[in-house]
Amino acid sequence: MNTLFDKIWESHIVDSDDDDNHLIYLDRVLVHDLSFHVFNHLRAAGRRARNPNMVFSFADHFVPTVDREPDVIRPEMQEMVDLLAKNSAELGIRSFGLSDPDQGILHVVGPEQGITLPGLVIAGADSHTSTHGALGCFAFGAGVTDITHAITTQTLWRPRPGNIRVTVSGKLGFSVTGKDVVLKIIETIGAAGGTGHVIEYAGEAIENMSIEERMTVCNMSIEAGARAGLVSPDDKTIDYVRGRPSAPTGKDWDMAEAHWRSLATDSDASFDREVTLHADDIAPMVTWGTSPEDAVAVTDTVPNPQDEADQNRRAKLERSLDYIGLSAGDRLTDVAIDHVFIGSCTNSRIEDLRAAAAVAKGRTAKVPAMIVPGSVPIQKQAEREGLDRIFTEAGFQWREPGCSMCVAINGDMLEPGIRCASTSNRNFEGRQGKGARTHLMSPAMAAAAAVSGRITDVRELMR
Amino acid sequence: MQALIELTATAVPVEGANIDTDRLIPARLMRNPRDAHRSYGPYLFHDQRFNADGSEISDFVLNQPAYRDSKILVSGRNFGCGSSRESAVYALLDYGFRCVIAPSFGDIFYSNCVRNGVAPLRVTEEEATRLRTSLAQAASPVVSVDIRALTITGPDGHVYNADLPPFQQTRLLEGIDEVEATLKISDKIDAFESRYFAAHPWLRDGLTEGGA
Predict the structure, then answer these.
(1) A80–B87: do the CB atoms touch at under 8 Å?
(2) B104 vs A contacts (CB less than 8 Å)
(3) b vs e for A365-396, b when ≥16 Cβ sit within 10 Å of the residue's Cβ?
């Protein structure tokens, strides 16, 4: 009678107070090259890692995606990479640095290396730690003070969250992906729809998704305000984890697998809230504004703020349109694009690159378009499959792995007014550069925008 | 962290829902160290406060003379959504803010506020709108907050009930160093680990022999 989340939460309670706050045990703590305040706090207080083997660091936010060899890398980026290496060595933790053969975005590398496993509780110094929940674990982002606490004590105090189930029934249509599903969910429940809750994703459409697509869905749970996203472990989960470098083996594997299979939400479990969507109602989605909730089907038009009765909401829509430079009633497919970014912890995995390459193949990018794989292993895999050649022949730039233009602090940044079709997770004001305009969409849609020079319904292009 | 019990100060109304942490502090400024002089204050709302040449954008609310020395911020729904960057709270704190009032907050931002002695107080959507309106109309936009009584008194004397759960209230009132508090119950963590790794032996490599 328990949900996946209940089972994980209950098995990690170290201590409790009288108001449903719990000291939760953490199986993994993840930090990155922007986490230097954490190391400074630890050093200032003379504190060490309680279990250094359970803490991992990743060079991703600051790493350049071009010119990153020792003799050409920009000194300020090298400084951040070196700082992470030094801090990690001091703490005695495994670090995936810039020159590591498995380097990449923390939310890509964790699952890829088997550091992320079903049933775990994972705290990450990054809000998109929700990604890892696709493997059936409880993974959430936290700030500097909390991560310092996490490293020192291997625990965190948390109020028990509520539990929402979002069920997506039916089969997704042609070129409708996990990205489109999660944008539709956020549009439906709102950017604060999941506040104080975790979301379990279920239903036929979720079951049919690969683990990578489920990661895209869980990744953007935070954009719906949720503390975490989860999917109950199934055969696909077990198959994904098996054989990963840090996954259990032998007798340990057998015990682990049996445990993981027991974690799925029981058929008679109840949730605080249920939301149901039907796959037939989901088209390729695009955002038109400055919040991920500002999403519509690509076939749609920009909404009219005057249709909004609530004055606060109307003001929000007007501000979004003013920033993004669109008007009520504009057709999304008429919107010209200046730049395309395909990458980020949301959409930089091998399947994402394959989907983009299928669109790029034999066509030519009309605007600057960059492909940034999520990790070195994905980069190598794509190169083995010849995807890099498809992209470069179509005029796309084939880059090195990192967060890149999702957070725009590694040198990959847009100029004011530039309009970007992006597979990342946030279309916030200034996110990809001061004054830059972001339209979120799937990798196939972004590739379609690149070869058309405007927002395009990929279904039309590929028909 | 510094405890917070009562505060009477200028309050600034910042209109808008979903004011995200990228707006509170642009990511590109986060590489800079935060020194002992609380140097993140100028980063707060940076791209809305300053032009490219560093001059002030005069119509941004925080640049208006009446609100410059604000310590309380009143905004809309889902304030502080987005990234986990605690720098967003550093920027608020270093500017001088000790209290943020809104109908709802991003969960991570909310936690980060409490950890730094900034009180995130929830009121209803209608009350937040009413408070912002009364601040915009007041000759002296001063607000009093009482963390013990959980009340907010507006410039017109109207008293609002603030929502702050006991866990967060206690931490703000007592300025608790949570790491110290948890280290005092290390025996509970030790006991948990004994049970947990016995039941989940495939995870035991996480335990370090002899420590780092």
Answers:
(1) no
(2) 192, 195
(3) bbbbbbbbbbbbbbbebbeeeebbebbeebbb
